[in-house]
Design brief:
five-stranded antiparallel beta sheet, Chitinase A, domain 3, extended, 598 residues, alpha+beta
């Protein structure tokens, strides 16, 4: 049900609240429950005129932030923040597009369908509630029926959940109906994963025939340009001037961290609980909540300074501070043992990272604020001259795309695309530091003129001609082989050498060739000893002789066929859903106002 889960994910939170309220009524003597909504403060997007409120977005954004903290043990920052923001916005867009489609296709649940589901086939969410399970944790229909027949129970939240989820199941079934996986499909998938080939081959490298190719003339270049103009179309692009202040650690920050490490080392040696100190102070999210425990490790598994300190210490020793690329460590050696002749150490540690102090960060923020305010009144060039600051310029970039030199900073990208040339930004705080930017250039959407792409076209036409020469050479050699000339003798006429591959999987990369599906596919279709016709690759043409073939094991295939079938079904279901959803987005009017808030 992977597809179903994806379609439900954006409404599930609200519905869980409703059902949660219902479950609470059962646990608390069939009482009542409810949910209050906050007042909308603004609009952050629209989908076909349906507004996405700022509050709705913000609540889900905070929920995603909390989940991220729970998973990683630290706050998201920089690119992670943007990813969370994009995921939440995309989820809200998806939710509305699916709801629109359900309404348009009249997939809403009828009263009869809701009743049938509640009484005879309750959703998994209900079945998984402990109050409806037996001592073994299995759903107990008798308990459930007793609850249904209880006149004091309020089933409206469950009805709302079923009424909301059934349309998604209908859409799910509708999309799945187009997914077909045949016996041939599963066989080919197994073959791709398990069949192996060994080949000899001649490679006719197109690059080697450059001298035999005539440069294209003006008429040929113009004709290609006119026939392929869409290839030379460019969307609007913009570039930025910017000042970057890195949130770097000062010498005072470094000394502060060493001082903290010395204090922690002293506390630990004086008998403080090492595990509690790790939970409170360690900045290693992977081990801090396990009392700093890193488990057993051998030589070569840790960074060198850490390894040397841990292996040189005795069992029970607490050593440090030890400096590594990750920061400063206080290490407690818990145990030592030999395993298969190799020494293993079990250690716990407290990690203090080299990070700028709040005072340092605030100082850099104030400097960035000064630069921004000064530049808004004048421009970045004036500030740079007055303050001796380096200004950098980005190459042109597209909307919502990576900004060369800055990165995936969508707040900055949005500023660039909603501002005029010469507009200076406020300060942008990122994971790396502080940016102040100024829109330097706007390049409108256009088709590149012929003169700008002339060399590009010449290179493309010459490559096509070289490939044609390679094909002709391969064809000539193939014809000689067909007349009885051995492969190696025919190769000598073109100063080529027969090369051999190892026994490799048909979907694997071949040494000297790379990943060439057409080559491996053509090879597998041959009989052992047979030589192929010229096969086109990405860099030239090949003649292939099949030396060995390891066909699939039919008994193993029979055992894995069902598993492969489900893998292919899931893969195609996801593909069908993605294609369907992309079409819905392309047909819809989606407005994104996040730039006004972030």
């Amino acid at each position: 049900m992977a597809l179903m889960n994806r379609m439900r994910q954006n409404t599930k939170t609200i519905l869980l609240i409703l059902v949660g309220a219902f479950i609470a009524t059962i646990i608390f003597n069939w009482g009542m429950g409810g949910v209050k909504q906050t007042q909308t403060r603004g609009v952050i997007g629209e989908v076909n005129g349906d507004e996405i409120s700022y509050d709705e977005f913000y609540n889900q954004y905070q929920s995603q932030m909390a989940q991220y903290r729970e998973r990683s043990g630290e706050d998201p920052e920089g690119y992670q923040l943007q990813q969370l923001e994009n995921q939440v916005f995309e989820g809200l867009v998806q939710q509305r597009l699916i709801a629109d489609y359900i309404q348009k296709m009249n997939l809403d649940a009828t009263n009869e369908e809701v009743v049938q589901t509640i009484f005879n086939d309750p959703p998994e969410l209900i079945k998984n509630q402990e109050v409806f399970q037996d001592s073994a944790g299995n759903f107990n229909m008798e308990k459930y029926q007793q609850a249904l027949n209880n006149p004091g129970a309020d089933w409206v939240p469950v009805e709302n959940y079923v009424r909301a989820s059934l349309p998604y199941e209908k859409l799910d079934r509708m999309l799945k109906a187009s997914v077909l996986v045949s016996e041939t499909d599963t066989y080919l998938e197994y073959l791709k994963q398990n069949a192996k080939i060994k080949i000899d081959y001649l490679f006719f490298n197109a690059t080697n025939y450059a001298k035999e190719v005539q440069a294209p003339g003006d008429t040929e270049i113009l004709e290609h340009y006119q026939q392929h103009k869409e290839e030379y179309h460019e969307n609007e692009r913009r570039s930025l001037k910017y000042v970057f202040l890195e949130t770097s650690t000062t010498s005072a920050d470094t000394q502060r961290i060493y001082n903290e490490a010395e204090e922690l080392l002293k506390e630990a040696k004086e008998g403080a609980n090492f595990g509690e100190l790790a939970k409170i102070y360690s900045q290693d999210p992977g081990s801090a909540q396990q009392d700093g425990d890193l488990g057993y490790f051998g030589r070569g598994q840790m960074v060198k300074p850490f390894e040397q300190a841990a292996f040189n210490a005795r069992e029970g020793d607490i050593v440090g501070p030890v400096t590594s690329q990750f920061g400063v460590h206080i290490i407690k050696v818990v145990d030592k043992k030999r395993e298969q002749g190799e020494m293993q150490v079990r250690a716990s540690h407290i990690l203090l990272k080299f990070e700028a102090s709040p005072m340092t960060v605030e100082s850099q923020r104030e400097e960035a604020e000064y630069i921004s305010e000064f530049a808004i009144e004048t421009n970045l060039d004036t500030v740079a001259q007055a303050e001796g600051i380096e200004i950098q310029i980005t190459p042109p970039f597209e909307k919502e795309a990576f900004i060369p030199g800055i990165g995936m900073e969508q707040r900055i990208n949005r500023f660039a695309y909603r501002s005029q040339v010469g507009t200076v930004s406020p300060v942008y705080n990122t994971a790396k530091g502080f940016y102040v930017v100024e829109v330097a250039e706007v390049i409108p959407e256009h088709t590149k003129p012929l003169e700008e792409v002339r060399n590009q076209i010449i290179n493309k036409l010459e490559e096509e001609k070289r490939m044609q020469v390679a094909k002709n050479r391969a064809k000539r050699i193939y014809e000689q082989i067909q007349q009885g000339t051995p492969l190696d003798e025919a190769a000598m006429q073109d100063s080529l050498q027969v090369k051999s591959s190892d026994l490799v999987n048909v979907s694997a990369s071949i040494k000297g060739i790379g990943r060439e599906p057409r080559v491996t596919g053509a090879a597998y279709a041959l009989q052992v000893g047979e030589i192929s016709k010229p096969v086109k690759g990405s860099r030239g043409y090949y003649l292939i002789q099949l030396i060995d073939k390891k066909d699939i094991n039919e008994e193993n295939y029979a055992g894995q066929k069902t598993s492969l079938l489900y893998q292919l079904i899931n893969r195609r279901q996801n593909m069908i859903y993605n294609q369907w959803y992309t079409r819905q987005k392309e047909k819809s009017n989606i407005e994104d106002y996040r730039g006004m808030y972030f």
